[in-house]
Design goal:
The protein is of the alpha+beta class. About 35% of the residues lie in helices and about 25% in strands. The chain contains 13 helices and 21 strands. Bound molecules: flavin-adenine dinucleotide.
């Protein structure tokens, strides 16, 4: 009886002691280590800069040889974007947005059939990118550095670049977007699913809009809806950040249903390169551009078709859904679009990457070990990512209602 009581007391004592030890460890925040970030877009920069400010040594490997400057369009910034900009004292980027004072809905003639007083600010992706790129030293940001594969061990991971070099760090962060190579290692076999429609997009200098179009759309968030198609547009700052009327740009998005075959064909660029998810500005083939302009003339009100037909460099973004079944393996972790791809209707892509970065930083600073931090980060951000994916699917349902069958083998369906 006494022995039993002693054993019981002993056990209680041991678990209290280990609890105490755990709490002591938790209260001793981790010192910064070395992190490699794959992907030098906004997600990679968010986490790179936040970790750098916590004393981590970082290296960002970006596949693009020329950099991402000037390659973005527009976005509607959410609270998370304001929060993360405040972390680096760059609230001014939020203020460089262009405000739309109302939402307008057009009819087939281009007349305003509905109005909603919903003032909203729109931001240029380029300005956001630049604010974060400026925070990283050139020697830590490696252009033309495509990552080919990743390996992980218990206390480190290795990044294998296409040029054959191998780089080791205590933590590797995959911020390499929708076609993530890092994800192939963390969650093998998981792939984004094509949703049956795509967004043709443009970013036209405001002064190139016709007077008729500008009079209707300027400083307004404009929508034109049909059952299986949607056009929307808004004004963003000029490439130099100017918000002066005439110096700004008009960002437009036209969602259209495309079968998987039509989508694959639309992605076939003039350079013959086969892309899987999108065709950046300057790569859309002549025939796809001609088809787009003809479709605009046939289907959109003149005030909008003129915007599309005058656009010199339209680009194309397929609409995909993706939810990572796991967010980390060993010392390799996913962030941003590499982990969850959300539809653009949510306006949450950049906000989600910002929230991922702030949560990963917090976990790494507050937890006693990298392993504990990755567990905590993944537990929180898996739920958030899934909810945003579902939200985007609900918003996109109307556009998908008549969506043609998808091709499983091409678009990652099981
Ligand atoms: C040039 C560009 C312009 C964009 N413009 C807009 C916009 O105007 N509005 C908007 O809402 N969203 C835009 N996006 C998308 C937006 O950034 C993402 O949806 C979201 O913010 C999540 O960002 P991310 O960093 O996770 O992914 P992404 O922004 O997609 O970035 C992934 C990065 O990883 C790089 N990469 C991919 N594979 C490798 C590899 N193997 N090795 C090294 N690097 C690799 C890519 O080149 C890319 O720079 C843009 C993305 C890019 C890349």
């Amino acid at each position: 009886m006494i022995e039993q009581a002693a054993a019981h007391f002993d056990g209680a004592f041991i678990s209290a002691a280990s609890l105490l030890a755990f709490e002591v460890m938790r209260s001793q925040p981790m010192r910064g280590g070395k992190a490699i970030i794959v992907g030098g877009s906004v997600g990679g920069l968010f986490i790179g800069v936040l970790l750098q400010r916590e004393g981590w040594s970082i290296d960002i490997y970006e596949r693009s040889p020329s950099g991402l400057e000037g390659k973005g369009a527009g976005l509607v910034p959410q609270q998370e974007v304001a929060d993360i900009l405040r972390e680096i004292d760059r609230g001014d980027v939020m203020r460089a947005g262009v405000s739309a004072h109302e939402r307008i809905f057009l009819d087939r003639n281009g007349d305003i059939s509905g109005r909603l007083k919903a003032p909203q600010s729109q931001m240029s992706w380029d300005l956001l990118f630049k604010a974060w790129r400026d925070e990283v030293l050139s020697q830590s940001y490696h252009l033309g550095s495509g990552v080919a594969s990743i390996t992980t061990a218990q206390s480190h991971a290795e990044v294998h670049l296409s040029d054959g070099s191998i780089h080791r760090a205590e933590l590797v962060i995959g911020a390499d977007g929708i076609g993530s190579v890092v994800r192939a290692m963390v969650a093998p076999g998981s792939k984004p699913r094509y949703a049956g429609y795509a967004a043709f997009r443009g970013l036209s200098p405001e002064r190139e809009l016709s007077k008729q179009s500008a009079d209707v759309v300027s400083d307004r968030f404009t929508f034109y809806d049909l059952p299986d198609t949607q056009f929307l547009g808004y004004t963003v700052a000029g490439a130099d950040g100017s918000t002066k009327p005439g110096a700004r740009r008009y960002n437009w998005v036209w969602y259209r249903q495309l079968t998987p075959d039509q989508f694959a064909q639309a992605l076939e660029a003039n350079d013959g390169e086969r892309r899987a998810f999108s065709a950046a500005r300057g790569t859309l083939s002549t025939s796809t551009q001609e088809e787009l302009r003809a479709a605009a003339r046939a289907n959109l009100p003149t005030v909008l078709s003129e915007i599309v037909t005058r656009e010199k460099c339209p680009f194309l973004q397929g609409i995909f859904d993706f939810e990572a079944p796991v967010m980390y393996r060993g010392r390799v972790v996913l962030l941003g679009d590499a982990a969850f791809v959300v539809r653009p209707h949510t306006a949450m892509g950049v906000a989600k990457a910002a929230a991922d970065a702030m949560e990963l930083r917090d976990a790494l600073v507050e937890e006693a070990s990298i392993d504990a931090a990755l567990y905590r980060y993944s537990a929180k951000r898996m739920i958030a990512g899934s909810l945003i994916v579902r939200y985007g699917q609900r918003l996109g349902e109307r556009l998908q209602m008549h969506a043609p069958d998808r091709a499983p083998e091409l678009y990652g369906e099981e």
